[in-house]
Amino acid sequence: MSDEHIDEVSGVSTTGHEWDGIRELNNPLPRWWVITFYVTIAWALVYTTAYPAWPMLTSATKGMLGYSSRKDVKNDLAAAEAAKGKYVAAIQAKSVSEILTDDALREFAVAAGAAAFKVNCTQCHGSGAQGSKGFPNLNDDDWLWGGSPDQIKQTITHGLRFASDPDTRLSEMPAFGDIITADQIAQVSAYVASLSGKVRDASLIQPGAKVFAENCVACHGDNAKGNREFGAPDLTDAIWLYGSGETAIAAQVRAPKQGVMPAWVGRLGEIKVKELAVYVHSLGGGE
Amino acid sequence: MRDKTQLTRLETETVNAAKTRKPLYAARQKIFPKRASGNFRRFKWLVMTITLGIYYLTAWLHWDRGPFAPDQAVLLDLTNRRFYFFFIEIWPQEFFYVAGLLVMAGVGLFLITSAVGRAWCGYACPQTVWVDLFLVVERAIEGDRNARMKLDAGPWTARKLMLRVSKHAIWLVIGAATGGAWIFYFADAPTLVGELFTGTAAPVAYITIAVLTATTYTFGGLMREQVCTYMCPWPRIQAAMLDENSLTVTYNDWRGEPRSRHAKKVQASGQSVGDCVDCNACVAVCPMGIDIRDGQQLECITCALCIDACDGVMDKLGKERGLISYATLSDYNANMMLATAGGSSSINPSLVRTAVGTFSDQVAHFHIRKIFRPRTYVYMGLWSLIGLGLLYSLLTRDRLELNVLHDRNPQFVTLSDGSIRNGYSVKLLNMIPELRTIVVTMQGLEGADMVVDGDDIPAGRSFAIPVEPDRLKTLKVFVRQPADQIHAPAQTFKFRVEDKANFESNEYAATFNAPEAAK
Q: Per UniProt, where does heme c 1 bind (chain A) (predicted)?
């Protein structure tokens, strides 16, 4: 190390470091920069002591302030629950028909029910509750088991033909393929189809009516309007769960398909079921 | 063959050679503007009082809008997304009015600048007004120019410390008041001021005050002219707005030069001498620290204080005012031609004067006519056109609006009697702070009727419903049409809303969907 050396080109002093005749200029960092740099280091020490930071073998340091993002989420969720508390308590206390009379409560239940519907019901009933073949459309005004708020709630609570719930809605249409002849099936199908539309062979209607009177009126009624006690569908309307027309009807007479819906109260609880009932009732077909 | 004799060597030097390289950073030189007095200074006091008054007091004005809306005259209600301005209430979708006003402000600035130069910078810009206010404080505490310069150069004594601390403290208070006034435009002012001092106001209120205190203090107290010179884009843009007929603060060197501190002696020696006595009064008062005698320059905000300073000196000397004056470039050029005998000689002020010492008839003076020229007409026309357009739109705007969202999942529902039903979310916007009863009617779609979900309104083609003041009401409306009336998979019809009280109405064209098979 010699005395201070000034670089001729730039006029800047050098550090004394020299490689192959090339000297390193001594351009110190600005003081404000250096101070800022040290401040950030000090800040980092304080920060990583106060908050969870340093990784250990299996976890990380917890930090002096005891902060945790999970706790934040938990608090936020608790706050959200608390905000909903007033409505939830009211829903618990009231029947579904009572909820419908309270505008604010109804609005809350519809929103909550819509969310629960998206998670639990869309798999069968579709995202717009429009249903599909074998799965009822919940928007229309045709209800197998009744469309009043409390009837809807009953259906959601205990389900349909759901073996493990003793209060489930239960009915079973016999497979008439084993009871009546193929001709009789064709006749009764023509008769049923004639109640809401045209048929191919009008001569089948008369004998079909006789077959119907002998075999079907017990459940579907004298006028074929159905019976909600047994979930027996109205055969005179425009809505057909398993398809309209003689062929579809004949198939259903021969070996009926019967839908099953689980009982939801065990899984979702009383409150969610009520919210779902309000939501389904609000879709436009509620009675 | 190469001919080396053809080579010429150029005599040139680099702008920033390594040998003479200087840093690009220039340290600020302190400016100690002297107090000016005169017409322009009085005008500036007036503008300052009015603009500061508007800023600090507007939020406290009241305007009665009835029981369903705030009674603050100017309020930007972010929570409820409403903007109240005296008799006008603006919903978020009407924010284009504010955009329109900003466009008008822009064109207005063009107009003002092309007519009277950078008047915005010199008189009305918040930077100028607040710097002026900060200078008032500085002068009151530390004294005028000479006292301040002496204090600044002197050692740190207890007195200097005391003066400096109190000056900066008052500046900070002004800054806090500036930030404090700002937040009152965003909430009910009397309520907020109570919350503010009891520490219960929203954190954003305190943060806003803190930020604005910092910017006001820094820009108004510490940076001052540097904001205009280095940070602000306006000086660059406004310069482009000026032309030869724009009024700007001008040093009339055609009567001032050659300047002399010893006019009598020079005159006695037979040389010509101008009106400028080189007293530097114009430089001392300049808040930008420039010399107007160098000509029009970027830094000049045209605050006209140099005019006041110079006029005072001219009065004392018994000469005509206006050695520094508002003048247009064309007048200035004409007078320069006169003073230099067509540009053939250096300035000879005697050429602009008659034998008895008054100005000759040929000296050009500003005439108000010059303000009215195609350029300003175009700006004025544009400005009024936008203004009238906004005004027309404001006077004829809807206060009852209707938006309809057609259910898309499912698009339609077949009912047990075969009829088809469509669902619609009908949004009624009652945009006045009064409860209104709105009649909703359907037009078209034969045989159809509608019901409202969750309401006891009987099915029909029309129903009346109350809509809360200043609110949006969403209705779920189900429209049904019997199967035998349906003639197309997609039919159009109209929802119509009407307020029977004042006959305001609105319509929305909607579509009714049906399955392809149903016809």
A: 121, 124-125, 261
Find the residue in B nearest to A97 (Cα).
Answer: B454
Task: Name the residue ranges covered by the structural domains of chain A.
Answer: 1-67, 72-142+267-282, 176-254
CATH number for domain A176-254, candidates 3.30.160.20, 2.40.110.10, 1.10.760.10, 3.40.50.1000: 1.10.760.10
Distance CA B514, CA B485 (A): 11
pTM score, two decimals?
A: 0.74
Q: Which fold has domain A72-142+267-282?
A: Cytochrome Bc1 Complex; Chain D, domain 2 (1.10.760)
- Taking the C-alpha atoms of residue B273 and residue B348, their distance in angstroms, rounded to an integer, is 8
DSSP state of B378: H
Chosen CATH of B400-513 out of 2.102.10.10, 2.60.40.10, 3.20.20.190, 3.30.230.10: 2.60.40.10
In Å, what is the CA distance from B490 to each residue of B217, B378, B411, B517?
65, 51, 11, 12
pLDDT digit string (tens) for A39-76? 999 999 999 999 999 999 998 888 899 899 999 999 99
pLDDT at residue B1 in the model: 59
Cβ neighbours around A235 below 10 Å, total: 20
A127 touches chain B (CB under 8 A): yes
Cα nearest neighbour of B421 on chain A:
A140
- Model pLDDT for residues A214-254, shown as the tens digit of each residue: 999 999 999 999 999 989 999 999 899 999 889 999 999 99
Give mean pLDDT, residues B376-398: 94
Query: Which residue has better confidence, B13 or B33?
Result: B33
- What is the rounded average pLDDT of the residues B497-506? 90
Displacement of CA B402 from its chain's centroid (Å): 35
- Going from the C-alpha of B289 to that of each of A4, A6, A286, the distances in angstroms are 42, 39, 81
Report which DSSP code applies to A270. Answer: H
Give how far Cα B59 sits from Cα of A22, B56, B75, B88, Å: 68, 7, 7, 15
Question: pLDDT digit string (tens) for A139-153?
Answer: 999 999 999 999 999
Domain assignments of chain B as residue spans, ordered by start: 39-238, 247-366, 400-513
Burial of residue A226 (CB within 10 Å: 0-12, 13-18, 19+) is buried
CATH topology agreement for domains A72-142+267-282 and A176-254: yes
Euclidean distance between CA atoms B182 and B212, whole angstroms: 9
Is A142's Cβ below 8 Å from some Cβ in B? yes
pLDDT at B463: 93
Which two tokens mark A185?
Answer: 């099936």
